[in-house]
C-alpha cells in the first residue's frame, strides 16, 4: 500500500492503534488528510484491524471481509507506512518548539520509526540530570534504545533493564552512528572522569576500545576522560595519527607508555619517543616495521627488534648476521620466524636457542620428531601447536606436571587427551579455556558445564 493513495479518503479502524499513541495516530491521519471512521459506508477505502478489538468489532471485521466490501489490512502495516513517510525535519522542529516530552518519548518507544530518526530524536531527549535507570521516563527510553539495536534480544530479554545492557550493546555494535549517539548521552557525560566503580564506566571503556568508534568520539574521550581510558585509546589498532598526537601532547607517563606499545605508532612520534629507553624498547618490539623504522631502531635496539613479529626476511637476515647470542635467543622465540632462519638458528650451539626453537610453530615437523628423543625438549614440544599429534599423545603419558599443563593449554592436543586431562583438577580449568576443546564441545553438542 501507499499512504499517498489514501489522501482525502476514509479508513475504517477496528480497535486501536498500536505503535502510535491515539493522539499521535490522529495527528498523522490529519497530516495525510485521511479520515478515520468507526462505521462502514460505501466510501470507505480501507479497513484496518487494530489492537484491542472488541468481539463486536471482530465480528464486523470478519463479516465485511467476507463480503469483500473493501481491502482489509493490519494496523502494523498501516503504521509502518506512516512511519516511513514521517518528515524527520518537520517532526524534530515540532518537538523542539513544543517541548512535549511525552510525545518525544512516544516516538522513541515506537518501533516503527527508522533508526536514523530514532537517533536524531534520542539527542533531543533530556535526562534531567539523572542516570539511565534513575526514573521511569529514563528507564523507558533506555530500554527502547537497547531493544531496538540489541542483536538477538529474545535470548536475553531482561538486558534492557540493566546498565550492562548498554555495554553489551556497544560491544556487539556495527553502527558508527549508534556509538556516536550513545557517547553523547547526558548520563555518560558525567561519568567520563569516574573510576571503575561507576556503573557507566564500562560503557565508556567499551566505546574507547571498539574498533569502529569514530575519530571525533575518540578525540572527545581523549579531552575529557581519565588516564586509564586514554591508555586504552593509545593502544588501539589503527589509532588515527591525529589522535596519537593528541595523546602524546597530553604528556601523562602512563599514556605515553601505552602509545609505545601501539603497533601502528606514527613515525613522527616514533622518532620523538625513542629518546626514552623504555619507550624505545617497547616500540622496537611491537611497532609494525618497515625499512625506515627498522633502520632507525637497529643500532641500539636489535634484541628488542628480534622479538618483533613483523620482521621481514631481509630484517631477520640482517639481525642473524650480527652473530649476537642475545639476538639469536630473541629470534628463536619469534612466532613469525622464516623457516630459512629457523634452520640457520639450529647451527647455534646454545641449548636455550634450541629449546625455544622446539616450541616455535615455524620449526619443521621433522626436527620436532627428532627432538622427542631428548627429554630436555619435551616441555617445548608440549607447548608447540605444530608438534605432530602422535608425539602429543606420547607426551600425555608423562608425569611432569609442567608438560601436562602445557598439553591442556595446547589447541593441537588431541581431544581424547584433553578429556583425560580434564579429569585432573590441576588441569581442568586449562582444558576448559582451550579454544579447540570449546569448539569441539559446541560442534558435538554434548552436555558440558563451564
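^ C-alpha cells above, recovered residues below v
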Amino acid at each position: 500500500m501507499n499512504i499517498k493513495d489514501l489522501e482525502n479518503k476514509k479508513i475504517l479502524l477496528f480497535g486501536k492503534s498500536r505503535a502510535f499513541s491515539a493522539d499521535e495516530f490522529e495527528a498523522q491521519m490529519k497530516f495525510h488528510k485521511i479520515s478515520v471512521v468507526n462505521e462502514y459506508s460505501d466510501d470507505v477505502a480501507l479497513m484496518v484491524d487494530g489492537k484491542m478489538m472488541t468481539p463486536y468489532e471482530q465480528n464486523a471485521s470478519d463479516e465485511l471481509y467476507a463480503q469483500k466490501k473493501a481491502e482489509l489490512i493490519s494496523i502494523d502495516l498501516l503504521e509502518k507506512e506512516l512511519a516511513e513517510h514521517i518528515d524527520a525535519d518537520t517532526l524534530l522542529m515540532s518537538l523542539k518548539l513544543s517541548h512535549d516530552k511525552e510525545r518525544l518519548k512516544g516516538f522513541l518507544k515506537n518501533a516503527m520509526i527508522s533508526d536514523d530518526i530514532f537517533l536524531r530524536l534520542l539527542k533531543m531527549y533530556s535526562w534531567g540530570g539523572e542516570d539511565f535507570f534513575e526514573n521511569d521516563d529514563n528507564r523507558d527510553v533506555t530500554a527502547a534504545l537497547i531493544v531496538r539495536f540489541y542483536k538477538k534480544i529474545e535470548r536475553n530479554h531482561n538486558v534492557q533493564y540493566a546498565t550492562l545492557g548498554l555495554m553489551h550493546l556497544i560491544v556487539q555494535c556495527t553502527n558508527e552512528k549508534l556509538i556516536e549517539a550513545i557517547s553523547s548521552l547526558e548520563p555518560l557525560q558525567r561519568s567520563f572522569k569516574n573510576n571503575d566503580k561507576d556503573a557507566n564506566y564500562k560503557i565508556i571503556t567499551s566505546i574507547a576500545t571498539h574498533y569502529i568508534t569514530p575519530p571525533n568520539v575518540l578525540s572527545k574521550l581523549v579531552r575529557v576522560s581519565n588516564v586509564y581510558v586514554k591508555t586504552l585509546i593509545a593502544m588501539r589498532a589503527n589509532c588515527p595519527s591525529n589522535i596519537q598526537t593528541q595523546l602524546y601532547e597530553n604528556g601523562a607517563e602512563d599514556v605515553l607508555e601505552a602509545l609505545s606499545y601501539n603497533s601502528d605508532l606514527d613515525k613522527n612520534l616514533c622518532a620523538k619517543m625513542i629518546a626514552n629507553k623504555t619507550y624505545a624498547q617497547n616500540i622496537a618490539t611491537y611497532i609494525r616495521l618497515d625499512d625506515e623504522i627498522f633502520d632507525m631502531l637497529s643500532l641500539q635496539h636489535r634484541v628488542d627488534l628480534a622479538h618483533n613479529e613483523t620482521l621481514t626476511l631481509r630484517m631477520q637476515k640482517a639481525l642473524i648476521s650480527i652473530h649476537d647470542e642475545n639476538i639469536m635467543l630473541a629470534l628463536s622465540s619469534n612466532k613469525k620466524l622464516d623457516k630459512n632462519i629457523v634452520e640457520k638458528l639450529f647451527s647455534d650451539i646454545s641449548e636455550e636457542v634450541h629449546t625455544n626453537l622446539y616450541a616455535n610453530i615455524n620449526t619443521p615437523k621433522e626436527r620436532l620428531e627428532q627432538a622427542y628423543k631428548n627429554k630436555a625438549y619435551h616441555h617445548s614440544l608440549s607447548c608447540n601447536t605444530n608438534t605432530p599429534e602422535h608425539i602429543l599423545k606420547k607426551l600425555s603419558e608423562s608425569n611432569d606436571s609442567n608438560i601436562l599443563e602445557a598439553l591442556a593449554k595446547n589447541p593441537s592436543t588431541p581431544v581424547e587427551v584433553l578429556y583425560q586431562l580434564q579429569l585432573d583438577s590441576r588441569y581442568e580449568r586449562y582444558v576448559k579455556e582451550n579454544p579447540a576443546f570449546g569448539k569441539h564441545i559446541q560442534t558435538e553438542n554434548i552436555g558440558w558445564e563451564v
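Residues 108 and 145 are 8 Å apart (CA to CA).
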